[in-house]
Amino acid sequence: MATATPTLPSAGPVAGSRSFISKLREGDEIARLVTFLFAASVVLITVLLVYELWINSALPRHKFGLHFFVTEVWDPVMDQFGALPFIYGTVVTSAVALCLAVPLGIGAAIFLAELAPPRVSDTLEFFIDLLAAVPSVIYGVLGVFIVVPLMRQVIYPALNKPFGFLPIFKGPSYGVGFLTAGIVLAIMLIPYIISVSREVLLSVPRDQREAALALGATRWESTWKVVVPFAKTGIMGSVFLALARALGETMAVTMVIGNTPQIAASLFAPGYSIAAVIANEFTEATGELYTQSLIALGLVLFLLTFVLNGLARLLIIVTTQKGSKVRA
Amino acid sequence: MKRTALLLAVVLFGCSLAVLAQSGLLINGAGATFPYPIYSKWFDVYHQKNSSINFNYQSLGSGAGIRQIIEGTVDFGATDGPMNDEQLKAFQDKRGTQILHFPTVLGADVPTYNIPGVSASLNFTPEALAGIFLGKITKWNDPAITGPNKGVNLPANDIIVVHRSDGSGTTYIWTDYLSKVSEEWKNKVGKGTSVNWPVGLGAKGNELVSGMVKGTPNSIGYVELIYAAQNNIPYGTVKNSEGSFVKADLASVSAAAAGASKDMPADFRVSITNAPGKTAYPISSFTWLLVPEKIQDAKKRDALKGFVKWMLTEGQGYAEALSYAKLPKEVIARELKVVDSIQ
Predict the structure, then answer these.
(1) 20 to 30 A from A10, CA-CA: which of A152, A237, B87, B94?
(2) Nearest CB to B190: which of A73, A78, A255?
(3) Closest chain A residue to B205 measured between Cα atoms?
(4) CA gyration radius for chain B?
(5) Which of B86, B167, B190 has its CB closest to that of A281?
(6) A241 touches chain B (CB under 8 A)
């Protein structure tokens, strides 16, 4: 919104010289107003959301203060509430999901955009869009019936035997847990990353590729060293979208994470996420402090998304600067 | 243009139909999900008998039902656990009248388990159940479990506990029972629709609890009796307060209510877990309708009174077909007296 207003006068001296009435008649002003309202509504909804969450979480804020963020206990009977295990679970599952989904998704997007014949690419794109539209509860069911047994019988023995000395692969596996939730999330994120990244890669101008090829680059060199860096910002955008979905995913996560509010180093251990606990407990929550603590968790999730998005953006700025230095 | 007009006409017609269907008296309710199948059956049958009375019931959960009746956004509420004193006071303060609890039908929780190589129905003592869910009994061949299961070859495997992750009346009944039979559970965990579980994995809903038990060797969980009965899920017996091992079914659950009815408080806010009676199943509970004692709107008052009376008499006949245990006669007789006190 703030960036939209100052760009308008730069539309040219012609725009400035016309009278307001004539602009209105020609539709420019109407279009500007209408689109401005649409853009403003996004800000309005965000502000309203934060306001509502803030107002309705006053009790735990006064009672627990900042301890809410570092307390590990979640006990509705004794009215003791802390967000730490849920924050931990949300961050860990999202991190695992991104670690798996980003290389897979971007790799597939590169193949579809640069290397596959157009007909194959378009057909696959159809399936990818189909996957992106599958409701998360379906992925959850898939997780329960396929990933959970697979985890217990195949993945766990394969990782625990050789790498069991590492804290992240220690301990028993129940099938459900951080890693299972991360894998199911990754499956959900891949279509998003592929779909958006493919579009971005396809929109890289042809002459970029041709120039690289003319300089004697192989096809892979032109793809990896020219096209992908050109599309970097857009690809990062797809990763943000994926991250946002991972942080907020509720149904699929709650079905496979084990729903145990604890902090455990092992990825095989059961955990809990913020979105999952809100969905699980809100309807049956009785008592003001309990209900408001759940709303406070919503605010925490909002903050977490904000912070992680900021960090990711920072990462982009840092890495793109490095890239330009190399080129220079 | 013509097409738009036609479309508009169709939409308007549809709206007016919807309005027509809503004419007459609309009574709004919200609350427990567990009795939703029987409630919707009752509302449907009662509407067919009294076409001017419509019910709109939102099965949002017991907590939501209590919140909404306190806020006054619904005409009646429904809950699987009675309102506590704090909530009663909140209702009194906000609405200026008392809330009445009406038991409607009964439900029960059953222990379900999956032990490879064990197909026999297991007997559970209260000590064994409390020990397992406290995390103190960790192996299936613990003497507390093998004791009442002579002849069953129980393995030395670790027990994996599965509980509900969503707030639920089923959890309320289960933890209410454990609080009664184990002093340690009462002090360490307590009862509620969600609790701070000492051990175990959480799964959402009866479906996923039973799904996880089925899929996880050496696990034990608890599910609602109706869910177990309708899905042929095997479950164990539980030792009641008089020392006999009872399998949960409609008769043994009704027997628990009959056993508890002798010292039932006037407001029906009573837990019937671990009830007396030789044939009583110990992990049983009422589910309640919440109706204000004073209702301003005379039409709504008469309609609600009429419905509750019908539900207590004729309506009970529909319960068993849907696997709900009926109220015992003693309780019905006492409830009918309370219905008349609604003003």
Answers:
(1) A237
(2) A78
(3) A280
(4) 22
(5) B167
(6) no
Q: Do B216 and A284 touch (CB under 8 A)?
A: no
B168 to chain A: which residues are within 8 Å by CB? 284
- What one-character DSSP code corresponds to residue A9? G
C-alpha to C-alpha distance for B271 and B150, rounded to whole angstroms: 32
pLDDT tens for residues B171-194? 999 999 999 999 999 999 998 888
Q: Tell if the CB–CB gap between B166 and A260 is shorter than 8 Å.
A: no
A188 close to A253: Cβ distance less than 8 angstroms: no
Provide the shortest C-alpha distance from residue B278 to chain A (in Å). Answer: 32
Complex-level ipTM beyond the 0.95 threshold: no
Residue B113 β-bridge partners: B220
Residue identified by tokens 């539900």 is B311
- Residue B258: predicted pLDDT: 86
Tens digits of per-residue pLDDT, A150-184?
998 898 888 888 888 888 888 888 889 999 999 99
What are the residues whose beta carbons fall under 8 Å from the beta carbon of A11, sequence distance 6 or more? none
Instruction: Count CB pairs under 8 A between chains A and B.
Output: 95
Residue whose C-alpha is closest to residue A83's, from A299, A309, A311, A314: A299
Given an 8 Å threshold on Cβ–Cβ distance, is A259 in contact with B195?
A: no
